[in-house]
Amino acid sequence: QVQLVESGGGLVQPGGSLGLSCAASGFTFSSHMMNWYRTAPGKERELVARISTTGGSVYYANSVKDRFTISRDNTKNTLYLQMNSLKPEDTAVYYCNRDLYWGQGTQVTVSS
Q: Cα(23)–Cα(110) distance, rounded to whole angstroms?
């Protein structure tokens, strides 16, 4: 069965960096577009970034453009999200997604 397992969340100060990973299994990872979403307290789930099957095409929400980088390693069946210059408003649970499949989420808290 499809499994998506996120890791790498935590507490970071404003201006800091964090890297998230999503280990995928149960499907042909290299054949699927992948996404990172986030849900902040009191807000709807938001698409943060999307990456094509080869990594050649990416999309970012305006709120994270130029600060976050999505990437993938199809040899390791792993999706990544590098987050730099983090702001308090980036505080959220971050989810790895493929179609109707979701990981369990990983908490990112940006606070001094």
A: 24
